Amino acid sequence: MSFTTTVKEELLGLSIHDKSELSAIIKLSGNLGLTSNGLTLSITSENAKIARHIYQLIECYYTSQPEIKYHYKTNLRKNRVYTVFVDSDVETILADLQLADSFFGLETGIETHILEDDNSGRGYLKGAFLATGTIREPDSGKYQLEVFSVYQDHAEDLASLMQKFMLDAKVIAHKSGAVTYLQKAEDIMDFLLVVGALQAKEAFEEIKILRETRNDLNRANNAETANIARTVTASMKTINNIIKIMDTVGFDSLSSDLRQVAKVRLAHPDYSIQQIADSLDITITKSGVNHRLRKINQIADEL
């Protein structure tokens, strides 16, 4: 199950509902039709549970008796597309939700009372996400929450509504509309809190922490491997120089303090500078060991 589906299923299980939630769903997924008997309303979703949820919301708030239909997408996967169809009292629903103007092209943004009221705003964001929202899988490390709108001004109003809840929402044009999106992990988690998806928020945060911890460990391991490689490279250079000295002027040509360090380096090529210092009979700092190793290399270079 995708993370988007996980979030939507949690939202569907919440007991708190609001007409503004239905308003957002109809605005983003609804289409009007006209028959000899008047207006019809069709609300589509590829999720059967969301379709049933829309059906229940309409049945809860209005006297209309909706119907659920479905058809298959014309592609190889043959996904079902569900339609909640209403053919009575559509004008009443549109008027009550203040949606009539949006369908007839006079107003495509979000109603002022929703933008001004926190509870209505939360409900609207919940409905918008149920309708066209998606969240990129959090373990990908590229965080993104998106809500698609047909109209640019609706996408911008949706961004303003998110910003009211201190979310850094932005809008980008799309070939068939506009997308309101969040890109920061903290904003996505806060959005989930705003709409009431508490379990999804905790799951998102856990995945984020595990991924960051894993990345930190990988970086630490990579750094340690790089340090070991550098140590071995430097060690082999010094060992070759010690052998050069032994083969030319002799080991005894080195002073006693240089011989002490040289013996440890020859015996332990993998030792770090600190380990060499700890192996000597005298107290010496890492800087002191480094100085002696550089001196040995210098002597070899001059031969």
Account of the protein in words:
By secondary structure, the protein is α+β, with helices and mostly antiparallel strands. The protein is 58% helix and 15% strand. It has a four-stranded antiparallel β-sheet with strand order 1-2-4-3. A four-stranded antiparallel β-sheet has the order 5-6-8-7. Strand 1 and strand 2 form a beta hairpin. Helix 9 packs antiparallel against helix 10, helix 10 (198-248) crosses helix 13 (286-302) and helix 12 packs across helix 13 (286-302). It is rod-shaped and about 110 Å long. The model has no long low-confidence stretch (mean pLDDT 87). It holds the Pfam family LAGLIDADG_WhiA. Residues 200-227 form a coiled coil. GO terms for molecular function: DNA binding. Residues 122-214 form the WhiA LAGLIDADG-like domain.
Strand-helix topology:
Layout: H1 3-12, H2 19-29, E1 30-35, E2 38-45, H3 48-61, E3 67-72, E4 80-86, H4 90-96, H5 100-103, H6 112-116, H7 118-132, E5 133-135, E6 145-149, H8 152-164, E7 170-174, E8 177-182, H9 185-195, H10 198-248, H11 256-267, H12 273-279, H13 286-302
Helix pairs in contact: 2-7, 9-10, 10-13, 11-13, 12-13
